[in-house]
Amino acid sequence: MSRGKAATALDLPRPDTLDAGKQQGAYEALRGAILNRQLPAGSRLPSTRSLAERWLVSRGTLEAAFERLHCEGYVQRVAGSGTRVCAVIPEQFIAAPAPSEAARREVVADQPEAGVQSHVPFVARRPDASLFDLKSWARCISRGLLSVGPGVLEAAHTAGLPALREQIADYLRSYRGMRCEADEVIVTSGIRHALDLIARTLLKPGDTACVEDPGYKPARRLFSLAGAHVQAIAVTAEGLDTAQLPDQARLAYVTPAHQAPLGMTLSVSRRLALLDWAARADAWVVEDDYDSEYNYNSAPLAALKSLDASDRVIYCGSFNKNLFPGLRVGFMVVPKALRPALLRTLQLTGYPVGATDQLGLVEFLGSGAFVRHLRASRQAYQARRDALLACLPEGSRVSGQQAGLHCVLWLPAGVQEQDFCSRAAAVGLTLQPLGKFCSEARLPPAVILGYTALTLAQIRYHGRMLTQLLIAA
Ligand SMILES: Cc1ncc(COP(=O)(O)O)c(C=O)c1O
Hints:
This protein is of the alpha/beta class. It contains 15 helices and 15 strands.
């Protein structure tokens, strides 16, 4: 393009954006002219003096706008020959070419998975995120970010930020009776992430992984994905039936605090038997402590990991249940012998949790806000549980209601779980049949009831419907 013929900013009318904020307005007007090619590549911008006269702004304002365009790569400034639009503007470096219209598909709005939404009666195992103090969380994130320099944001902390691991270890020592140190903690995005890491790292095709039956299906699926032979072990009133564990296995997965889904606590004698078995079989025990913060009748038993004298228990915890499900932060406490291998898998998969959430949690735990939230949510959940139990007809049999975020309602003998759930769905109740959690176990009919993500009014209203269904069953 020859010099004098190129369009210059003098051809541009004074932009309206100048009235809102002069420097920003001048920058936006010039950038817009470059992007829509009113100022094509190579064209020369006028001097800040002549443009200032025409646009009725100070030269300093334009100098700052030109400098910003220069820093962002839109213009070149060469002493003695003025300011020119660059041959290639930054948008061409940072944005891929737009897809052609023909290639665009109709966008289907993303819906939360059916059955796992909060405030749907009686969806189970959901916390009530509206009890969470978002303002305090926002302050923690902001304080956390402002308290560190770029070094912390740049460094690779595969196991999680040391300050967060310290806080987690401190919490586990004080509330779960564990003698654990920060260097045993690995930050994950939740319990399923921990199970995935364990499966990828420890299991080879053909290894045996023992799981509870009934039990938490994602654990079974993740172990199967790694090629393991998954062996279902029955659950009795004392929890996992340790007498059924095979002589040889690579690991056993358990939910000792509140069996998922039946809700009993693994007895102390079974805990000791499980640890003995692990030592004999040279196996690992995976402890899923998913909802142990919520106990309504008495203090919780310490974690199984607290009895782990031979360092065989991989403890998995999560903030996704006690804070809010979208947070996606959890943690593991791992035996020393497994730490390097687990960290290698974590690094390879590139899943470590973002620094912003970790820094926010350091503040949230350190300021006492976390424990305050646990106290308040426990109280709210207990009131909701009591309201649900009060709604049920006399003689109803419920179990697992002493702790956690759900309980089991046993249906009258002879009732088909699926039929009952379909009749409930017809009046807007989402119930999970116990059979969905079973592999080989054949148990009397029952459904899982969640109450924590419902208001008291919802529980009373929908509880009456549930009662009518039970009476009619
Ligand atoms: C027994 C059990 N473990 C783990 C989880 C999931 O934890 P996270 O969301 O941290 O992966 C759930 C979720 O309902 C659960 O029921």
